[in-house]
């Protein structure tokens, strides 16, 4: 895991400024929540850290190293985005091991890592299953295991619990929050849900119209007038 810094990141599209000078630091082992109204730049921030978008101006650094122009495949980031569905032509374990296979990790090690992660996420018996036969909450855990398998510099989560029922969300945020803390994961976590931010994030940044309006602990942010 790495320290990740955005310095004065600007992103212009033809007729919109999505990010208007965003500066943020995510410290090693910290989960930083990203909050704000629709269109404020949350997804663009994550996509810029992942390398899918190149800033119009400003820099992105991992552990001090400038990665602004490094392509996504060389950034080693873990993604849990809604559009990153599981591969339905692979078993659960193959899904988890996929990134390792791409990196040339041997079969035995891939298997051990996949098993270990599935155990940690409490779906240890599901390695041989077809992911489409899993519940939404179980699929979410597999997605997280797949993202963590590559030991990413940073984990990027974009509203991963959307679509799950309230009871399951409450359970997952507690369990996954504890796991991310235990594994010392560095993460950026986009959410609209106050409870999720309170449980899972060390600090949160509030964006508005492409700018960082406030950064603080969830308590500071939600209790401020
Ligand atoms: P959020 O995730 O907070 O809803 P986004 O980062 O998706 O916000 O979008 C920020 C702004 O940039 C919005 O005004 C959006 O319409 C615009 N935007 C995002 N992606 C593109 C794109 N590919 N082309 C043009 N405008 C975009
Ligand atoms: P190949 O990579 O040659 O296609 P497999 O289809 O057997 O081999 O497995 C793909 C990946 O999934 C491998 O990394 C393997 O270690 C892992 N894997 C397969 N089944 C399991 C399982 N039940 N539990 C954990 N890992 C598994």
TrEMBL record:
<feature type="domain" description="ABC transporter">
    <location>
        <begin position="4"/>
        <end position="225"/>
    </location>
</feature>
<comment type="similarity">
    <text>Belongs to the ABC transporter superfamily. Sulfate/tungstate importer (TC 3.A.1.6) family.</text>
</comment>
<keyword id="KW-0813">Transport</keyword>
<dbReference type="GO" id="GO:0005524">
    <property type="term" value="F:ATP binding"/>
</dbReference>
<comment type="subunit">
    <text>The complex is composed of two ATP-binding proteins (WtpC), two transmembrane proteins (WtpB) and a solute-binding protein (WtpA).</text>
</comment>
<dbReference type="GO" id="GO:1901238">
    <property type="term" value="F:ABC-type tungstate transporter activity"/>
</dbReference>
<keyword id="KW-0067">ATP-binding</keyword>
<dbReference type="InterPro" id="IPR003439">
    <property type="entry name" value="ABC_transporter-like_ATP-bd"/>
</dbReference>
<dbReference type="GO" id="GO:0016887">
    <property type="term" value="F:ATP hydrolysis activity"/>
</dbReference>
<comment type="function">
    <text>Part of the ABC transporter complex WtpABC involved in molybdate/tungstate import. Responsible for energy coupling to the transport system.</text>
</comment>
<dbReference type="GO" id="GO:0005886">
    <property type="term" value="C:plasma membrane"/>
</dbReference>
<dbReference type="InterPro" id="IPR027417">
    <property type="entry name" value="P-loop_NTPase"/>
</dbReference>
<dbReference type="InterPro" id="IPR003593">
    <property type="entry name" value="AAA+_ATPase"/>
</dbReference>
<keyword id="KW-0547">Nucleotide-binding</keyword>
<keyword id="KW-0500">Molybdenum</keyword>
<dbReference type="InterPro" id="IPR017871">
    <property type="entry name" value="ABC_transporter-like_CS"/>
</dbReference>
<dbReference type="Pfam" id="PF00005">
    <property type="entry name" value="ABC_tran"/>
</dbReference>
<protein>
    <recommendedName>
        <fullName>Molybdate/tungstate import ATP-binding protein WtpC</fullName>
        <ecNumber>7.3.2.6</ecNumber>
    </recommendedName>
</protein>
<dbReference type="InterPro" id="IPR050093">
    <property type="entry name" value="ABC_SmlMolc_Importer"/>
</dbReference>
């Amino acid at each position: 895991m790495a320290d990740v810094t955005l310095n004065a990141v600007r992103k212009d599209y033809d007729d919109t400024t999505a990010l208007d000078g965003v500066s943020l630091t995510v410290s090693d082992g910290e989960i930083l929540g990203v909050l704000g109204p629709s269109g404020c730049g949350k997804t663009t921030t994550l996509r810029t850290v992942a390398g899918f978008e190149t800033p119009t101006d400003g820099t992105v650094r991992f552990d001090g190293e400038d990665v602004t122009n490094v392509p996504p495949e060389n950034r080693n980031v873990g993604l849990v985005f809604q559009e990153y569905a599981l591969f339905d032509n692979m078993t659960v374990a193959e899904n988890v091991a996929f990134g390792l296979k791409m990196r040339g990790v041997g079969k035995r090690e891939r298997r051990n890592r996949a098993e270990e992660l599935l155990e940690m996420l409490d779906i240890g018996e599901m390695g041989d299953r077809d992911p489409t036969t899993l519940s939404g909450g179980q699929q979410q855990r597999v997605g997280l295991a797949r993202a963590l398998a590559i030991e990413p510099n940073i984990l990027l989560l974009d509203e991963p619990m959307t679509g799950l029922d309230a009871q399951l969300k409450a359970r997952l945020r507690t369990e996954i929050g504890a796991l991310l803390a235990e594994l010392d994961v560095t993460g950026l976590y986009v959410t609209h849900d106050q409870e999720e931010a309170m449980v899972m994030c060390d600090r949160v940044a509030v964006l508005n119209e492409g700018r960082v309006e406030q950064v603080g602990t969830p308590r500071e942010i939600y209790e401020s007038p």
